[in-house]
Design brief:
Pfam families: DUF1980_C. By secondary structure, this protein is of the alpha+beta class. The protein has helices at 3-34, 47-66, 81-103, 111-117, 127-134, 138-142, 146-155, and strands spanning 167-176, 184-191, 200-207, 220-229, 239-248. Strands 3-2-1-4-5 form a 5-stranded antiparallel sheet.
Length: 258
């Protein structure tokens, strides 16, 4: 390619790469919002703001590409080979990220992330939750999620506390207990404060020997049963959920706890 054509092509790349990438990423964000998948990445309270900002980005990108203008970089000398290499590498990474957003289907966080971030490492010590659970009626207890149960289990192992508190249809995905992976798994959910980056795994231990043969990791289940002393020899949880019913279910439309 002649030097003049190469210089012209380089100027076009420099001018429009950012605009195109921002426009495409904005459009993808709008598409995720339209199909209800944006909640897999950010807290619902930020969706409206994100959609507005993405719409502005797409509109600005379209206007920038469509508007004729005079450029003041025609007389600028071509950059050095090293500068071009660095710029192309940066542009390549941005394009790869953008293409990945298009080609890779939206997916929720899974067992792999839960194991990396350690289940219940950030479970709450909220004394008010424990106090409220101690006097909760049957209907309230039946509505407890992984968040409430993990908070309670973190603060008490008194089996008498759980006598009149059966677990009903506790929803979450299956993650192995690292201390006793053959006999115990966690019913897990991610708690999200802002976005998927800060998501923290919470879980309730379930003792069911041979569980993996019926419920592989990442399977979404609803578990009913009662809390009992942990019969595991290697498990570190003093109290576990002993199930009476484990039902495989579809992943909910909002898999995270907010």
């Amino acid at each position: 390619m002649p030097d003049q054509q190469r210089a012209t092509l380089w100027r076009h790349v420099q001018r429009w790469r950012g605009v195109v990438i921002i426009g495409v990423m904005g459009a993808i964000t709008l598409w995720l919002a339209a199909v209800g998948q944006l909640v897999l990445y950010i807290h619902p309270r930020y969706i409206l703001f994100t959609v507005i900002m993405s719409a502005i980005a797409v509109a600005a990108a379209v206007l920038a590409l469509a508007s004729p203008r005079q450029h003041d970089d025609e007389a600028v000398a071509p950059p050095s080979r090293r500068s071009r290499a660095v710029s192309l590498a940066a542009a390549g990474l941005a394009v790869a990220f953008t293409v990945g957003m298009v080609l890779i289907p939206p997916a929720t966080l899974s067992t792999a992330t839960a194991e990396q971030r350690e289940i219940n490492a950030t479970a709450s010590d909220d004394a008010e939750t424990l106090a409220a659970a101690s006097v909760a009626d049957a209907e309230t207890v039946a509505a407890f999620t992984v968040r409430e149960w993990s908070t309670v289990l973190r603060q008490t192992s008194d089996l008498a506390f759980f006598d009149d508190k059966p677990v009903t249809a506790l929803l979450g995905f299956v993650t192995a207990d690292a201390d006793d992976p053959e006999n115990t798994f966690y019913v897990s959910r991610f708690a999200v404060t802002c976005c998927a980056v800060d998501a923290q795994p919470l879980g309730v231990p379930v003792h069911l020997p041979g569980w993996a043969e019926q419920y592989p990791p990442d399977t979404w289940v609803q578990v009913s049963g009662a809390f009992e002393s942990n019969p595991s020899r290697t498990g570190t949880q003093p109290v576990v959920l002993v199930p009476t019913v484990v039902e495989v279910v579809d992943q909910p439309s909002e898999p995270y706890l907010f």
